[in-house]
Amino acid sequence: MSDARGDLVPATAEVLGRGAGTRPLRWLVAVTLLLGVLAAVGMIAAAPAGDRTFAGLSNAVQVLMSVTLPFTGVLLARDVLRSPATARLTPALLAAALLAAAVGAAGVLVCAAALAVAPDRAAVPKWDHVAYIALGSVLVQIVAQLVGTGLGLLLRPVAVACLATIVLPLGLWLVLGSVAVLRPAQAWLTPFATVHHLLSGEMSALGWGQWLVVVLVWPVALNAVGAARLTR
Fold first, then answer.
1. Which of 33, 39, 97, 119 has the fewest CB atoms nearer than 10 Å to its CB?
2. What are the C-alpha distances in Å from 224 to residues 87, 93, 141, 184, 217?
């Protein structure tokens, strides 16, 4: 990880360009965005009128997209593993984060468009906390994506790494939730627990603290261990 600062931007652009040139990554991004559109349409068509708010749509759209987006992180991690040069890890992680931010922003636009054309059948504050929710949407996807890169570095079979991006966070959430004394730890140790706070637009200081711990436990720790493996 010895990239000169001046080389970081072109190196990141190179990783993005190389990833965009692969059919699996393009298909995964397309499927992820399609899932977001379908979630928005489903919410507008079937959800109770009181749930057709920017927060309600964002919760459905961003959560569903965050299921498949980490698969692209796994693929971008493959780009690092193809080269013995660990210097490529930094631009690969930055490229993954930028792609995730773009997907999160696209989800924000999908929610805004769906809500704008939806019939107004309830006197509810549809656009409350829109700026905070938009920020939360981007953060949700970045965290999900970096979980994908971390597991992609640690688990060599692509299919296993992709499956682990779902099974490990969900499994920990279920285990902690099944034991009463451990249930409070869900908010501190699992991404799922913090996602709904981020997408509600009402994050407290405690909520931000819990989100920071989740970031350290998942994206930071996984990618740090993956980087350590690369240097050995």
1. 119
2. 14, 11, 19, 26, 10
Q: What does the buried/exposed string (b/e) look like for 124-163 if buried means 16 or more CB atoms within 10 Å of the residue's CB?
A: eebeebbebbbbbbbbbbbbbbbbbbbbbbbbeeeeebbe
Q: Work out the average pLDDT over 59-81.
A: 93
Please, which residues have CB within 8 angstroms of residue 91's CB and are 6 or more apart in sequence?
A: 3, 8, 11, 12, 14, 15
pLDDT over threshold 90, residue 50: no
* 129, 200 contact by CB (below 8 A): yes
Rounded average pLDDT over 146-162: 95
pLDDT of the residue at 153: 94
- Note the residue count of the chain: 232
Domain ranges for the chain: 5-231
How confident is the model at residue 1, as a pLDDT? Answer: 44
Rg (the chain; Cα; Å): 18
The string of pLDDT tens digits covering residues 213-228 is 999 999 999 999 999 9
| Helical spans, DSSP H, in the chain | 5-20, 23-46, 54-81, 89-117, 130-154, 158-178, 186-189, 191-198, 205-215, 221-231
| Separation between Cα atoms, residue 101 and residue 139, nearest integer Å | 7
